[in-house]
Automatic annotation (TrEMBL):
Domain Fatty acid desaturase: 68-334
GO BP annotations listed: lipid metabolic process
Protein name as it appears in the record: Linoleoyl-CoA desaturase
Keyword Transmembrane helix: yes
GO cellular component term of the entry, any: membrane
Protein keywords: Membrane, Transmembrane, Transmembrane helix
Pfam family of the protein (one): FA_desaturase
Cleaved signal peptide residues: none
Transmembrane segments: 215-236
InterPro entries: FA_desaturase_dom (IPR005804), Fatty_acid_desaturase (IPR012171)
One MF term in the entry's GO annotations: oxidoreductase activity, acting on paired donors, with oxidation of a pair of donors resulting in the reduction of molecular oxygen to two molecules of water
Organism: Agitococcus lubricus
Cross-referenced PANTHER family: ACYL-COA DELTA-9-DESATURASE, DESB, FATTY ACID DESATURASE 2
Length: 385
């Protein structure tokens, strides 16, 4: 069975009004950005730097002590999570371009993970954020290896859904790095291995750099602490991989998340684009520390609507977005991490089997006047608009 929308269908006028209210909210927030947000992102960057120094130093000098090893490994895992999710991911969206700090420019920042920043800016910032949950266009729907919506065509390979999902969670930074290759197109004959080899060159260079850093350089300079440092780096990366996998999947693939036929892109207006972000996204409930550790993707709805707004503002914006959604009869998908993740796991197991689609989300009404969506390629590539 496909996803049945819990949202009321809107008229053309209501869709335009809905979009106008969200545009006004974004404009209001962007006009208020200043020292508070700048201090926040600098504080996040300092945390990443000092937590990495502290954790790596502890592993190098006292890693033979089990309590120190556990604490240092956990801290290194947290440092990697915050660098990837709250610093790198958000900076690369251009959320801090207004500061005119060259080290925080969205189109030049390189993060501390295997996936190259340039590939991420294309596959994530542009393709995913522009075409969120549009089947056959948004490659993030199942990442080419999973069936997690009833609207996806079933193939025998999806019987391995639970195994593939587990492998994806364990190797998340490495498999995301390969996403831009779209290897399934080689199987279908849409691209050649020669094209894959050419596209793989920058990915291979980044893989070598990250592997050398965590599994050769730091263990070697640790001398007698080689094994504790090697093991600590490996486990810290696992912590980051599992957490990132869980948060991203909770933001996109929960029970109430909807997917859309690519026909919705025809003359899609700004209001319709906002509705698609709302209906295809899921939020998580939590406090400030939880929000930090998720890169504020605990507010995935707001992030999909306003990808270039600093994530630290999403919690406040969420209150207003939820109020606007309620007035227009739109379902606001939010819940605890436990609740949302359990529905993700349920989807992974359910759609491993050939369940047929009995109903799916109805198409949104088409207003007569076309408005350019907020998520333009220029903005999503991390270039200042």
């Amino acid at each position: 069975m496909g996803t049945i929308s819990k949202s009321r269908e809107l008229t053309a006028e209501e869709i335009n009004a809905f979009g106008a209210e969200l545009d006004a909210l974004r404009k209001e927030v962007m006009a208020s950005l200043g020292k508070k947000e700048a201090d926040y992102i600098y504080g996040v960057r300092n945390f990443v730097r000092y937590s990495e120094i502290a954790s790596r130093s502890a592993l190098m000098f006292l890693g033979w002590l089990p309590p120190v090893w556990l604490g240092a490994t956990a801290l290194l895992g947290v440092s990697k999570i915050v660098e990837n999710m709250e610093l790198g991911h958000n900076v690369m969206h251009g959320q801090y371009d207004w500061m005119n700090d060259a080290s925080l420019r969205g189109n030049s920042y390189e993060w501390d993970t295997v996936c190259t920043a340039d590939n991420w800016r294309h596959t994530h910032n542009y393709m995913h954020h522009t075409y969120t949950n549009v089947r056959e266009v948004d490659h993030d729907i199942g990442y080419g290896v999973l069936r997690i919506f009833g609207e996806q065509k079933w193939e025998p390979r999806f019987l391995a859904n639970p195994i593939m999902a587990t492998m994806l969670a364990v190797t998340f930074e490495w498999t995301l790095a390969l996403q831009s290759l779209e290897l399934e197109k080689v199987i279908s004959g849409e691209k050649t291995w020669a094209e894959v080899r050419q596209q793989f060159k920058p990915i291979a260079a980044k893989m070598r750099k990250q592997f050398t850093k965590d599994y050769i350089f730091f263990p070697l300079i640790a001398g007698p602490m080689f094994l504790p440092v090697l093991a600590g780096n490996f486990v810290a990366n696992l912590i980051r991989n599992f957490w990132t996998f869980a948060i991203i999947f909770c933001g996109h693939f929960t029970e109430d998340a909807e997917t859309f036929d690519k026909s919705v892109l025809e003359n899609e207006t700004r209001g319709q684009w906002y509705l698609r972000q709302l209906r295809g996204s899921s939020n998580l409930k939590g406090g400030k520390i939880f929000n930090l550790l998720t890169g504020n993707l605990s507010h995935q709805i707001e992030h999909h609507m306003f990808p270039d707004v600093p994530g630290v503002r999403y919690a406040d914006m969420a209150v207003k977005v939820q109020e606007i959604a309620a007035r227009y009869g739109q379902h606001y998908n939010t819940g605890s991490f436990t609740k949302q993740f359990s529905t993700v796991v349920g989807r992974i197991f359910k759609y491993a089997l050939p369940f047929k689609v009995k109903a799916e989300a109805k198409p949104m009404a088409v207003p007569s006047a076309t408005v350019v969506p907020l998520a333009t390629p220029k903005m999503n590539e991390g270039i200042a608009a």
